[in-house]
Amino acid sequence: MNKRDVAAPDPIELTGFNRTLAEIEWLLLVLVLVYLVLPDEPVEQTLGIAAAIAVFAVFILGFRYLNLFTLPARWKLTIETWAMLAFTAFVVWHTGKVDSPLISLFLLVIVFSALTLGKLITLLEVGLIASFYLFAAYTIDGTELFAYSTFSRLMLLFAPVALVAYVTSLIASDMRFSRNFAQRLSETDDLTGLPNMRAFSAALARYKQAAVLHERPFGLMMVDADNLKEVNDRYGHSVGNQVIRAVAEGIRRSIRSADLVARYGGDEFILLLPDTTEQAAREAGERIRGMIANTLIDAREGALTTTVSIGYATYPSMATDVDDLMLRADEALYASKHSGRNRVVAYSETFGL
User: Fold this and answer.
1) How far is 27 from 79, CA to CA, in rounded Å?
2) What is the pTM of this model?
3) Where in the chain are the domains?
4) Which fold has domain 197-352?
5) What is the pLDDT of residues 302-351, one digit of tens each?
6) Given CA atoms 135, 133, 78, 169 in this order, what sign does their dihedral have?
C-alpha cells in the first residue's frame, strides 16, 4: 500500500490553521482601521479604504459562515490568503504605494502561507506581491524605475518580504520533517521495521470506507510463526528475534506493493490485501508460506528454517464488518495452527475443521 502523504496537514492541523487564519484576518482589519483613524497619517482615499474594510469583513463572515459545517481544506485557506493579498494591495496602493507604512502587512500572509500551505503557494504569492510592488513603483517613477540607483533601492525595501518567505519556508520544512519523523517512529515496529497496529488500524479504517463506497473486495490475513517458542528455548531470544525478522522479510518479499503488512504482536503479523478475492488471498498466502519455508536463518549452531500458519477472511464474502473480518481471520489462523501448521486456511473452511 502506498505510504500516506505525511507532509499533508491532517484534519486536526487544518482545524488549527483555520482558527489561526481567522485571527490573522481580523488582526489585519484592526491594523488597517487603526491606521485609518490615526490623526497624523494622511489618507487620500478614506472612503475607499473604509469600503474595502467593509467588503473584506463581509467576505470573512460570509466565507466562514457558508463553510461553517464543512471541514477545513487547503484550498479554502488558499482562497482566504489570496483575498488577504488583494485587500492588503488595495490598502497599500491608497496609502503611499511603495512608500506605504502598511506594506509590511504583506508579511502576515507570507508567514501564514509558508508555515501552512507549502512552498509552491508561498512562491506564487511572493511573485504576486513582487509584481504589485514593481507596478506600483512604475506608476511613481516611470522609466526611472529601471535606473540602477532606483531599482536597487526598491529591491532593498522589498528584500525583507522575500527573506521572511524564504526563512519561514525553511523553518516550516524542518518542522514538517520533525513531525513526520516522530509520526513514523510512533507507527513503526522497532524489531521488524514494519508498521505497527496503530498505523495498520488507521490504514484499514481509511481503506474500508473506500471499499464499501466502491464495492471493492479485500482480504485480511493473519500469519503466525510455528516454532518460535522452541527456537527461543533452544537458542535464546536473540535468535528468536532473527526468526521474527525473517518472517517479516519473507512476507514483505511475497506481497504486492499495494498490500500492507504490520506486526500484530509477538510472532504474529496481519495483512491488508486490497482488491483481493478469496482465491487471490489463498494464492497470496501460499506464496508467503512457501517463501518462508524456504528461508534459511543463521544461528550459532547452523542454519534454521521455520514455517508459518496462515488464516484469512475476505470482504464481503466472509464478513461485511471490519471487526468481524479480523475476528474471522484470527479464527482461520487458529484453525490453521490446530490442523497441522504450515498451511493456509480460509475462514470459510473452518466449519469443517
Assistant:
1) 18
2) 0.58
3) 11-186, 197-352
4) Alpha-Beta Plaits (3.30.70)
5) 788 899 999 999 998 898 888 899 999 999 999 999 988 899 999 988 86
6) positive
